From TrEMBL:
Highest taxon of the lineage: Eukaryota
An example molecular function term from Gene Ontology annotations: ATPase activator activity
Biological classification of the source: Eukaryota, Metazoa, Ecdysozoa, Arthropoda, Hexapoda
InterPro entries named among the record's database cross-references: DnaJ_domain (IPR001623), DPH_MB_dom (IPR007872), DPH_MB_sf (IPR036671), J_dom_sf (IPR036869)
Keyword Endoplasmic reticulum appears in the UniProt entry: no
Entry protein name: DPH4 homolog
Keyword Transcription: no
Cross-referenced Pfam families: DnaJ (PF00226), Zn_ribbon_CSL (PF05207)
DPH-type MB domain: residues covered: 81-137
Length: 138
């Protein structure tokens, strides 16, 4: 991941699969631990502000969903991007409920459909290290 990108789950010492109650419990524990009134240095202030920011994003289901999509894109940024295509270039398979696109290595890119697909998705090939960026119309 990039140095400038902050993983809010790590800030709150949680897994990405953590539910709301787990996130809240860790937030409260860390907020008490790093509260500026309990620390002597300004380093604690910065950590506290980061904890506050992480909680403000992850506590709201909609902002968490957007953040999760951003996190996935960031994780895939180290992959070799082969090309950018519109969703309309992919083939929809009704039986699987997924979109596919052929890779030049004879593998396939598979994009499973779900309720919340962000406007841009990076999909890796099932056979090689190439990935494609799929632009999805709103």
């Amino acid at each position: 991941m990039s140095d400038c990108f902050v993983d809010y789950y790590k800030i709150l010492d949680c897994e990405r699969t953590s539910n709301y109650d787990e996130l809240k419990k860790n937030y409260q524990r860390l907020a008490l631990l790093f509260h500026p009134d309990k620390k002597d240095s300004s380093a604690g202030d910065e950590k506290f502000l980061l904890i506050q920011k992480a909680w403000s994003v992850l506590r709201d289901p909609e902002s968490r969903k957007q953040y999760d999509a951003l996190l996935v894109c960031h994780e895939h940024s180290n992959l070799l991007l082969y090309e950018t295509i519109p969703l309309s270039d992919m083939t929809f398979d009704i039986a699987d409920g997924a979109y596919t696109y052929p890779c030049r290595c004879s593998g396939i890119y598979l994009l499973e459909t779900c309720d919340a697909i962000p406007p841009t998705v990076v999909v890796g090939c099932n056979e090689c290290s190439f990935s494609i960026q799929v632009n999805i119309p709103c």
